[in-house]
Amino acid sequence: MDVAFEGRVALVTGGSRGIGRATCRRFAEAGARVVVHFRADRTAAEATLAELPGDGHLALAADLADPVAVDDLVSDVVAACGRLDVVVNNAGIYEDHPVTGTDYAAWQAAWQRTLGTNLIGPANLIHRAVPHLIAAGGGRIVNVSSRGAFRGEPGHTAYGAAKAGLNSLGQSLAQELAPHGIFVTTVAPGFVETDMTEDHLAGARGAAIRAQSPLGRAADPDEIARTIVFLATPGTEYATGAIVDVNGASYLRN
Ligand code: NAD
């Protein structure tokens, strides 16, 4: 068994399914004690827990759009595990709200919800976690952004803006936190086969999306998980500040 993370505690938000679930599995395989964060589906979180090798893993619930719940989550992790070494801001929502087809009240609510979950939630979690990462002698933060942060997508204005904000957050924090031994990276996936994209990847629309990549397919969640775990692995410190595309060459940027 790989032991790169032996004695370390990794908190993965949205760990009950999709990319988060695959990431929990990869961290556990690399020797970490994993905290599987979930919003409401305890059954799914416990199913993730059941497939993790090693001991001491736990599942904790919190609505990341609620700053009090985020504070409690970090306190509960440290109370249960005694330390925190790695934070993966993976949880997110992906809603379709075209500006022309959405009434003003729904538009307001969508922007609040999307920024609250995809940008402010991670920022709050980082604020609460950083003192514990410092206390652990340094740590890692990996934020899960999106290709949509760079190229945008019709109907996903708030999503793209939130993910672009997450990219910027990571770059500022990488500079701010390096002196504390905390290294911050961002993973920007293209389309991944998860519940989030089930509708998008169905039928002719799905075929068009898969054709955007010369690989002719969307990613498997495990391909994103491996990149996340790699960026948190000891020895990759100098990658801090990086935004790593995992999009099957469907979108290339300088
Ligand atoms: P998913 O829908 O399977 O998982 C998202 C998780 O986030 C769920 O477990 C959900 O409960 C959790 N979550 C959502 N809102 C929450 C809240 N307020 N509080 C707590 N938890 C909350 O999606 P996924 O595809 O695994 O996506 C994981 C991350 O990857 C997201 O940030 C997403 O934006 C990003 N991403 C996904 C794709 C893709 O194609 N699937 C592409 C680019 C980026």
TrEMBL record:
InterPro entries registered for this protein in UniProt: KR_dom (IPR057326), NAD(P)-bd_dom_sf (IPR036291), Sc_DH/Rdtase_CS (IPR020904), SDR_fam (IPR002347)
Swiss-Prot/TrEMBL GO biological process terms: fatty acid elongation
Classification via SUPFAM superfamilies: NAD(P)-binding Rossmann-fold domains
GO MF terms held by the record: oxidoreductase activity, acting on the CH-OH group of donors, NAD or NADP as acceptor
Source domain of life: Bacteria
Positions of the Ketoreductase domain: 8-212
Pfam families for the chain: adh_short_C2 (PF13561)
Keywords: Oxidoreductase
UniProt family annotation: Belongs to the short-chain dehydrogenases/reductases (SDR) family.
Name this protein carries in UniProt: NAD-dependent epimerase
